[in-house]
Amino acid sequence: MIARVFVLIVVSITSALANTNNNEVSESLKISGNNHRNHFVRGLGPHVRQTWGEPWPEPQRRTLYGENFMVVRMALFRFKVTNFTCDMIDLALKRYYDILLGAGAESQKLKMRLVVNQAERVTTGYRGHLDVLEVNLLSSCEYLPHDNMDESYKLKIDTPTRPNRGVLVANSNWGILRGLETFSQLVHHSRNHSAFRVKSTFVQDFPRFSFRSILLDTSRHFLSKEILLKNLDLMAMNKMNAFHWHLVDDQSFPFESKLYPELSGKGAYNPYTHVYSRQDVAEIIEYARLRGIRVIPEFDTPGHTQSWGPAVPDLLTKCYQNSTIAGRQPVPDGTFGPIDPTQEKNYRFLKTFLGEVVDTFPDKYLHLGGDEVDFSCWKSNPDIGAFMRNENMTRYESLEEYYMQKLVEIVASFPEKKVSIVWQEVIDNGVEIEKDSVLVNVWKGWHYQEELGNVTRMGYRALLYSCWYLDMISWNNDWPGYYACDPQNFTGSAGQKELVVGGGAALWTEFVDETNALSRLWPRASAPAERLWSSADVKDVEKAAPRLEEHRCRLLRRGYSVQPVNGPGFCEQV
Ligand SMILES: *[C@@H]1O[C@H](CO)[C@@H](O)[C@H](O)[C@H]1NC(C)=O
Ligand SMILES: *[C@@H]1O[C@H](CO)[C@@H](O)[C@H](O)[C@H]1NC(C)=O
Ligand SMILES: *[C@@H]1O[C@H](CO)[C@@H](O)[C@H](O)[C@H]1NC(C)=O
Ligand SMILES: *[C@@H]1O[C@H](CO)[C@@H](O)[C@H](O)[C@H]1NC(C)=O
Ligand SMILES: *[C@@H]1O[C@H](CO)[C@@H](O)[C@H](O)[C@H]1NC(C)=O
Ligand SMILES: *[C@@H]1O[C@H](CO)[C@@H](O)[C@H](O)[C@H]1NC(C)=O
């Protein structure tokens, strides 16, 4: 009762605010030229009304059987493993049991209820209660998530072939994880909080793209282990499967190396508090593994490496300034540029250091960066000039190519046979890499469709990030723009489209730290999550908005501070 009164009050406050803001809204719409106006309904009540018990991202196939639904009696509910299992599955069942039980925290009474409420029993479509979800894994578990993992599953809730039963079937443990997430989203409160319901549904699901990532930058601002773990939870709740960890950059070096402890000792913002210990890293990798998420570290070189400098003598190029006295040699100006590519000992260092990285992170992929190399310091340095003349190099791009080529060879020489990911410039500047041992990370906002065409025409596999730089914020609901971007929407053959293996959302942290990382990222990142998982024809913003509204409320109810996504509104059951 108390909860319902509260909700009514919230509605009236919200609509009062919505009314006073109308003029401002229309002004801003004009200014930003936003064309999602239809979506922005004004007047009494929330702008978008949430759905009830609809999943995000939208499954590939989902059939509903009329208005049919079953009531889940939480006090009796359990998962029943009917075939293979392993620790990862057992832990996931515990986790999802807690998530289900946590749903609608206000109604302890509802959770304990054994007898289905009369109101539910007389509702059209009532099909009895569902106390068991059978979990049928058809093979033994794989240990590490990987680039070809099978994430498909089928979920049958009171279908004609399985009346009054709930069954989750998957070929692999990864499919079971994804299916459990879907099931946990289908279970919802009835609109008036008299029971937990699940609609009679047949879901047959698999991802459209195999690579669906979130990039977090932990150099511009340090993000604590707790935030990274919470982000992994949120990724799992959006079926994303790769954590692209941009660990270090110019500003700080928070990764604690065993072989070179002075890297974080001298390069972290604070070597005691702003570092990831080896144990932290192991814990993050394990937490991700249990959720079917790969952890791909990025050690961006040769640019973006100022924080490496203090620990490794002569690693960075010395920059020079011209002497003011005519005829004098230039002199070092005390600043440093990208890694000095002319020094053999730098490659020996990189081989040892990256060897440690490869031992630490079990994923087959390693991100080598290679973006935004500033040539001005190389240009100023007379030794670099002499080296280039000696090597018959006339362009600084060739020097960058020389460096990246050697780096890629180092990575290829590791017995673990890693695949390198590089930012697009590496390929734009003509570095030639064996096609199966590299993924090209397209990130520049301009002409990304043309770039995808170019990269795949050369036969490289590609990842698209350009559309999803979520650190960039703007007035209004920006997710429809993210939602509209399709990684296969470029001019090219079917074979070229196949080479796009996915994409990701990036959160660079110049203006982001623990206080706002998760709320800025979610649920805005849910838009690319659905784009990368669901079928290409799931693209109607009007249809998606109420489902996203529910998803945001769901994440909030599960305890994550995620921001409003559709303008004025409110969440029930929080
Ligand atoms: C809501 O629940 C009450 C009883 O708790 C019931 O009388 C009413 O019909 C229900 N309304 C709907 C729309 O389900
Ligand atoms: C268990 O898995 C095996 C192997 O895939 C399969 O043949 C069998 O039908 C499954 N058992 C049940 C009860 O579904
Ligand atoms: C230094 O002077 C030379 C000759 O005047 C010029 O070509 C070069 O661009 C200058 N370099 C810098 C870094 O200013
Ligand atoms: C540079 O060019 C000269 C003249 O063509 C040639 O003799 C020399 O071997 C070249 N050096 C390298 C490193 O390719
Ligand atoms: C794509 O390739 C064409 C032909 O080489 C080139 O002119 C164009 O600039 C490239 N586009 C991008 C975005 O790099
Ligand atoms: C593809 O992108 C163009 C803009 O470059 C856009 O107009 C078009 O609607 C997009 N098509 C799809 C299917 O997303």
UniProtKB/TrEMBL annotation:
Signal peptide: 1-18
Cysteines joined through disulfide linkages: C86-C141, C319-C377, C553-C571
Domain Glycoside hydrolase family 20 catalytic: 209-535
Residue ranges constituting the Beta-hexosaminidase eukaryotic type N-terminal domain according to the UniProt record: 55-186
SUPFAM superfamilies on file: (Trans)glycosidases, beta-N-acetylhexosaminidase-like domain
Cellular component terms per the entry's GO annotation: lysosome; membrane
GO BP: carbohydrate metabolic process; ganglioside catabolic process; glycosaminoglycan metabolic process
Listed InterPro entries: Beta_hexosaminidase_sua/sub (IPR025705), GH (IPR017853), Glyco_hydro_20_cat (IPR015883), Hex-like_dom2 (IPR029018), HEX_eukaryotic_N (IPR029019)
Reaction catalyzed: Hydrolysis of terminal non-reducing N-acetyl-D-hexosamine residues in N-acetyl-beta-D-hexosaminides
Keyword Cell cycle: no
Single GO term (MF): beta-N-acetylhexosaminidase activity
Active-site annotation: E372 (proton donor)
Pfam families: Glyco_hydro_20, Glycohydro_20b2
UniProt keyword Hydrolase present: yes
Key words of the record: Disulfide bond, Glycoprotein, Glycosidase, Hydrolase, Signal
EC annotation from Swiss-Prot or TrEMBL: 3.2.1.52
UniProt family annotation: Belongs to the glycosyl hydrolase 20 family.
Protein name as catalogued: Beta-hexosaminidase
